[in-house]
Specification:
Layout (H helix, E strand, L loop, with lengths): L18 H11 L4 H20 L4 H17 L10 H11 L24 H15 L3 H12 L4 H8 L3 H19 L4 H9 L4
Helix pairs in contact: 1-2, 2-3, 2-4, 2-6, 3-4, 6-8, 7-8
C-alpha cells in the first residue's frame, strides 16, 4: 500500500460528506483502492490535523497527520463500522506519539509557526491564538481547532468527528467564551451571560 497522494483542496469543502459515502469509500479502501485512500485522506486530514495541532508544533502536526493515515490504512480491516472512519482515525490521532527525536508541545508554550508570507505581528498573533486554544479542555480545544484553524463548518465537524450537531454547537459556544477569557477580550456582560447560561 502506498501513502495517499497529497490531495488538492476539494471543490465542495463546505459540504459535509454523507455517511453512506464514507462507508463506500472505506469499503473501496479495503480493496486497496488508491482513489479511496486519497478521498479519505482529503476529507479527514483537517480532522486529524486539528487534533494534532493542539498537542504538537505545526511542523510535527503535519508530519504526524501523514503517520496517522498510514497507520489507519494499514489497519483499516480492523474498523468494525465502515461509517465510523472519522471517530476511529480521531482516536488514532489522540494516541499517536512523536519519535524520540521530537518534542511534544507543552500547553503553555507557544508553537512556532514557520511562515515567510506574513508580518511578524500576524505571526505572533497566530502563535498566541494557537497557544491559547491549546490550553483549553480537550473537547473545546479540538472543536475550535477544527473551526478556527482548519476552517470546517459546524456540519462538517459533526459529520467527520461523529459528534452530534448539538454537541458541536455547545463546544464552539463555550469554547469561544473560554478562549476570549484566556485572551483577555471578554467583557463583563459576556462573563455574566456565561455564568447565567443553563447547564446542559
Amino acid at each position: 500500500m502506498n501513502p495517499p497522494d497529497k490531495p488538492d483542496q476539494p471543490n465542495n469543502r463546505h459540504d459535509a460528506p454523507d455517511a453512506l459515502d464514507i462507508g463506500r469509500w472505506v469499503g473501496e479502501a479495503r480493496k486497496d483502492s488508491q482513489q479511496a485512500f486519497n478521498w479519505l485522506h482529503r476529507r479527514f486530514a483537517p480532522l486529524v490535523h486539528g487534533i494534532l495541532l493542539g498537542r504538537f508544533r505545526p511542523a510535527q502536526a503535519d508530519e504526524l497527520t501523514q503517520e496517522c493515515f498510514l497507520i489507519a490504512f494499514a489497519r483499516i480491516d480492523q474498523l468494525a463500522d465502515e461509517h465510523k472512519f472519522g471517530p476511529w482515525i480521531a482516536t488514532i490521532a489522540r494516541r499517536v506519539r512523536p519519535t524520540e527525536s521530537s518534542r511534544e508541545v507543552l500547553l503553555d508554550a507557544a508553537p512556532e509557526i514557520e511562515a515567510t508570507d506574513c508580518r511578524p505581528d500576524d505571526k505572533a498573533e497566530a502563535e498566541a491564538l494557537l497557544c491559547a486554544i491549546s490550553g483549553l479542555p480537550t473537547a473545546y480545544r479540538e472543536t475550535l481547532m477544527w473551526r478556527l484553524v482548519e476552517g470546517l463548518s459546524g456540519l462538517e465537524i459533526a459529520e467527520l468527528s461523529g459528534l452530534t450537531p448539538a454537541s458541536v454547537r455547545v463546544n464552539l459556544h463555550r469554547g469561544m467564551h473560554k478562549l476570549r477569557e484566556t485572551l483577555g477580550i471578554i467583557d463583563p456582560a459576556t462573563r455574566m451571560e456565561e455564568r447565567n447560561e443553563p447547564r446542559s
